[in-house]
């Protein structure tokens, strides 16, 4: 199956250079010269991978990565001219899957992209659409949640929050981190929003809801059953 990529790079020559290498490997390439164009393209076309430069005009790569992660788990490779650990940690915290520093070799970049896609495709192939935690079941394809076979009506944000907590099974998550990841960095509400939605989730899920959010110090942790 032919793969497609969204390549976001403000340097025209570098973008064309990278595009040529991906096309030689039979990728469909959608090019964007800045973050704003990248997000517009992402809404219109379906891609299997995003290669994203960090330092760009209008909107930097951090912001683009954050916006993409609000709605998609598409693999992301970030490119930067700086090799500081803080930059890489920021990228991974925002949801990047790979990190490449300049000067880069387009051949190596394509090889990393191919390897990342193979890992991702194997994971997706194994990943069940039905998530089961005791009596709690989440059907990601149908976007439904049931407890002991009974359908539970969740708001879109409650559903997103539940999936986010499940994805971070066993991890301690601060209220601030949850708010930014589920509601987005532009959200103007306060941290009590997280507590309110957690409370509603637990009430709707009954005994099964006790699994989803145990308070740990100042944060929450999802605890699945063994």
Write out the strand line-up for the largest beta sheet, numbering strands in chain order. Answer: 2-1-3-4-5
Indicate the mean pLDDT. Answer: 80
The largest pleated sheet is described as: 5 strands, parallel
Helix content: 40-55%
- Counting DSSP E segments of at least 2 residues, the number of strands comes to 12
Q: Which band does the percent of strand residues land in?
A: 15-25%
How would you describe the shape?
Answer: elongated
**Tally of DSSP helical segments:** 8
Order of helices and strands: EHEHEHEHEHEEEEHEHHEE
Find the structural class using helix and strand composition.
alpha/beta
Question: How far apart are the termini?
Answer: 37 Å
Keywords: DNA-binding, Phosphoprotein, Transcription, Transcription regulation, Two-component regulatory system
Domain OmpR/PhoB-type: 128-224
Domain Response regulatory: 4-117
GO molecular function: DNA binding
Could you explain the architecture of this structure?
There is one protein chain. The chain contains eight helices and twelve strands. The chain has helices at residues 12-24, 35-44, 61-69, 85-94, 106-126, 156-167, 175-183, 192-205; strands at residues 4-8, 28-32, 49-53, 76-80, 98-101, 130-133, 136-139, 144-147, 150-152, 172-174, 214-216, 219-221. Strands 2-1-3-4-5 form a five-stranded parallel β-sheet, with helices on both faces. The chain has a four-stranded antiparallel β-sheet with strand order 6-7-8-9, with no helix packed on it. A hairpin with a 2-residue loop joins strand 8 (144-147) and strand 9 (150-152). The longest helix is centred in the middle third of the chain and has 21 residues, at 106-126. Mean pLDDT is 80; it is low at 214-218.
